[in-house]
Amino acid sequence: MDDVFKALADPTRRSLLDRLFREDGQTLGALQARFRMTRFGVMKHLKQLEDAGLVVTKRRGREKLHFLNPVPIRLVHDRWVSKYAEPWTAALSDLKTKLEGPVEKVFEIYIKTTPERLWEAITDSDIRSKYNFGVHIDSDWTPGSRYDTSHPSSNGPLVEGENLEVDPPRRLVQTMRALWSEDVKREGTSRVTWEIEPVGDSCRLTVTHDRLRDGANDQLFGGWPMILSGLKTYLETGELLTTPGSLMYATPPASGKR
């Protein structure tokens, strides 16, 4: 986490993250135009943000796009923000996200595990429920097959979709249609891509959630940082996250109320 704090210590780098928060997926040229410094200077700052995992890049034809990756910040949050402050910070974050509505989100995290074990954690229903709010997933994991997710407290599936690409243990591409409320049902179908890349004794996991409409309901993508933080914690320590947000949907409410 030292790299994260070092990257955030500089006001220019914080401003770059703010720019990406307002409009994700920008080119170097678009970002450089907003600062009174050379292209090389902006590149150096972006490189430090990439090294800290706070920025992820993806190629689109000849362009190299930069995306804000909130997962490292979520890990800092889970470690140090108290259970009393967490509901307030989550509420403010949700408000900001609702006002700005991105159409594509990219999340990246490094996990000390093997590609095979990481793939198993993504596709095994019992393991997935441990870090994904208690939600189980059901599929035969073949290309073109269907999948759905459910929770013991729900009356039906929470998410349904199709497995477009299944390439274990490297790549999984799925459509996603959320069903847990009428608001998210109206959002239609989006796409989630899981990419696993071995890096030394660890894996880089990149999750790209795209084909979201402009101004899409933030419930569709707002939980990814917490899910991926929980996945990392479980695979590296065997323990579960116990922050209020991670426990919010983990067990059915005792009285029928949240």
The count of helical stretches stands at: 11
Structural class: alpha+beta
Mean pLDDT over all positions: 84
Beta-strand percentage? 25-35%
Strand order of the largest sheet: 3-9-8-7-6-5-4
Topology, number of strands: 9
Give, in order, the helices and strands: HHHHEEHHEHHEEEEHEEHH
| Mass-distribution shape | globular
Q: Can you tell me the number of structural domains?
A: 2
Q: What's the CATH class of the largest domain, please?
A: Alpha Beta
Q: Helix content range of the residues, please?
A: 25-40%
- End-to-end Cα distance, whole Å, is 33 Å
Could you name the key traits of this structure?
single chain; 258 residues; alpha+beta; Arc Repressor Mutant, subunit A; Alpha-D-Glucose-1,6-Bisphosphate, Chain A, domain 4; two-stranded antiparallel ribbon; 9 strands; globular; disordered C terminus
What does this 3D model show about the protein?
28% of the residues are buried. Helix 1 (2-8) packs antiparallel against helix 4 and helix 5 (71-80) packs across helix 10. The chain has two domains: 2-68, Winged helix-like DNA-binding domain superfamily/Winged helix DNA-binding domain (Arc Repressor Mutant, subunit A); 72-247, START domain (Alpha-D-Glucose-1,6-Bisphosphate, Chain A, domain 4), CATH 3.30.530.20. The strands form two sheets. A seven-stranded antiparallel sheet has the order 3-9-8-7-6-5-4. Strands 1-2 form a two-stranded antiparallel ribbon. It has 258 residues and is α+β, with helices and mostly antiparallel strands. The protein has helices at residues 2-8, 11-22, 28-32, 39-51, 71-80, 86-100, 115-123, 125-131, 182-185, 224-237, 244-247, and strands spanning 55-60, 63-68, 105-111, 136-139, 146-150, 159-167, 171-178, 189-199, 202-210. The chain has eleven helices and nine strands. Helices cover 39% and strands 25% of the residues.
